[in-house]
Amino acid sequence: MVVLRAILKLYKVVIRLPDESTPSEIRNNPRFYPYFKDCIGVLNGTHVCASITLSIQGRFRSRKGGTTQNVLAAITFDLKFSYVLAGWGGSAHDSRILSDALSRSRGLRILEGKYYLADAGYGIQNGYITPYCGVRYHLKEFHAQGPENAKELFNLRHSSLRITVERVFGILKKRFRVLDAEPF
């Protein structure tokens, strides 16, 4: 019973469902508002090391060679999880995991007219926006010279907002070292 109470308390603190209002991180920043006013968060996947039985290790082998679970997360701009789907093997493609999350009866729900930011691995579909392909994207690429056109400016701002999910995964893996450790 004590463990259940602790889990429920953690759920209330760490997981928050997005609402229809524009997040203050966007609303109060002229770089993002009004351009991203309907954005409710960021989608991304991360690999978590996993100890898997030999018979099913193939599905969990990541492109880096280890056995991992590919975990999909939707994160709000105040660094809270709004959705998590774990259990997919490390070899599963991000877009396949997202399709599964959207098709589940209690899966990821995206409010009408709202969207998440996602990386190019998710393709193009309603409910999330990916950056322009073949155009500078990562923040370090703009260090020497700023954006030269509207697509680069969009990608720079997209990247500036999407970095939120990388921060959350970094914090989580630093706090719970077992998520980033080699399986034993």
Automatic annotation (TrEMBL):
**Residue ranges occupied by any DDE Tnp4 domain in the UniProt entry:** 59-180
Instruction: Specify whether Transcription is a keyword of the entry.
Output: no
Matches recorded under Pfam families: DDE_Tnp_4
* Protein localization: Nucleus
Predominant location: nucleus
Q: Which UniProt keywords apply?
A: Hydrolase, Metal-binding, Nuclease, Nucleus
Q: What domain of life? A: Eukaryota
The parts of the chain that form a coiled coil are none
Which cofactor(s) are needed, names only?
A: a divalent metal cation
Which PANTHER family does the annotation name? PROTEIN ALP1-LIKE (PTHR22930:SF228), PTHR22930
**Similarity field:** Belongs to the HARBI1 family.
Report what the protein is called. DDE Tnp4 domain-containing protein
Taxonomy of origin reads: Eukaryota, Viridiplantae, Streptophyta, Embryophyta, Tracheophyta
